[in-house]
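ARCHIVE CARD
Drawer: 12
Card no.: 0347
Subject: one protein chain, sequence and derived structure
Cross-reference: see card 0346
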Amino acid sequence: QVQLVESGGGLVQPGGSRRLSCAVSGRTMSNYGMGWYRQAPGQEREFVAAVNWDGGITNYADSVKGRFTISRDNAKNTVYLQMNNLKPEDTAVYYCAARRIGSASYAYWGQGTQVTVSS
């Protein structure tokens, strides 16, 4: 069983930056692809970013390309989401997810951390 705990959320002004962290425990992190999703009020959960097992391959939603960066440190069992130039439309609960290598879907999810972008 994989446990995921997000942290780093909070209130940030438009144009500001924030770094989210996701601590992974329970299994060897390098056996999992990792992703970030978000859900705004009244909307469905949407994909934000993903990284493969060693950090060599990343992909992003078009809405965050050039502003967000996903990375991972397998030695620290942590995955990060650096968010720059934040916009009010980035306001959402951000979730960390884990997908076992070879699996098509994310089976493990954190509890989420709220990010609010507002002046």
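Annotation on reverse: The longest strand covers residues 92-100. The chain has a mean pLDDT of 96.
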